[in-house]
Amino acid sequence: MRGAAARFAVSPSSAIKLMARVRATGSVAPARYGGYRRPVLAPHEDVLRALVAAQPDITLAEIQAELRRQRGIRVCLATIHVRLRRLGLRHKKRA
Fold first, then answer.
1. d(CA 93, CA 24)
2. Integer Cα distance of 26 and 46 in angstroms
3. Is 0.70 surpassed by the pTM of this model?
4. Fewer CB within 10 Å: C terminus or N terminus of the chain?
5. Whole-angstrom Cα distance, residue 56 to residue 53?
């Protein structure tokens, strides 16, 4: 393997790891990484809708505090913001 690594100008450890992958999987394709993570607030959409419906001018910090109080979940403001936008519950400022 060290000779093959020198011939193809790669490090010996890369050649050794590649051959170990071929033996284990039968393929040189890289392993899959990452994956789907379900949204944290998906099961709590009913609470979000109710909070916004009851108080349309509620702030993200107030929503965060209510989620912690009612459901015991801790999420950052950005997570709440993204979920509200996906639900179409954007706050529009009016002049």
1. 58
2. 47
3. no
4. C
5. 6
